[in-house]
Amino acid sequence: MGAEAGLGCVVGRYPHHEGIISGLYRTDPTFRSLCEDYCECLQSLARWTSETGENAALYQQDYRELLAELEVDIQRYLDRLSVNP
């Protein structure tokens, strides 16, 4: 994963918040880590989606759930900044 792949993944998901996301990514290590986790999860889901079999289906479900949890965390960051800029 490239140095700012996490940034690109999150901006791709929330393009209307690009400025806020970019600023947080540069200044907030916790948010940056969240973005990197999100990107790794997306990549893992893509890998397992191309696989078949029972194990693949289980991993796909696990990564979908993790992705949803990460999206909730990211959205909380964005919502907090929308309320308290």
Describe the model.
By secondary structure, this protein is an all-alpha fold. The protein has one domain (5-80). It is built from four helices and no strands. It has helices at residues 5-13, 18-27, 29-49, 54-83. Helix 1 (5-13) crosses helix 3 (29-49) and helix 2 (18-27) packs across helix 3. The radius of gyration is 14 Å and the shape is elongated. The model has no long low-confidence stretch (mean pLDDT 91).
**How many strands?**
0
Main β-sheet, in a few words? none
Helix content: over 70%
Please state the structural category: mainly alpha
Features:
mainly alpha; 4 helices; 85 residues; single chain
SSE diagram, text form:
Layout: H1 5-13, H2 18-27, H3 29-49, H4 54-83
